[in-house]
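Team,

Forwarding the record for the chain on the shared tracking sheet. I've put the sequence and predicted structure together so nobody has to dig through attachments.
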Amino acid sequence: YEVEFSTNITQFQKIATVLANNAGSSNYLYNHNLSNISNNRLYYRIKQVDKNGKTFFTNIVSIKSTAKNEIIVHNNPFISSIGLTVKTKQKEKLFLSLLDMSGKIIIQQTNEVSIDNNSITINSLSNLTSGFYLLKIQSISGVQTIKLLK
């Protein structure tokens, strides 16, 4: 068997060969290192080549990665701005919302980020009263919420 992988569902590449054990029905295990893959949607299929040369393909299986972005807050508590470093595995838009503890939106902003580390600053916060706030960050990989103190 050949394990094939794709990030776009049209161009597959062979990533492993697994020998058949010819036991009728068997389970096989293969670990795929995804550390260099930036897509969050992955596609796999198995190519079977019989002894007579006939080739068969399994149905394509789609897997969505649920890896969250890594977020570091540089100043918590904050005074007049919030500095973030966001490490992403893909180019995407982040939607940031700062909310008070009642859920009222204080400020919103959208940031385009690229693969790896990105610096983001939320400014104009000096007029906020002291207390706790929630920073909500929405991305392709989901929603992350961070509790902040001013």
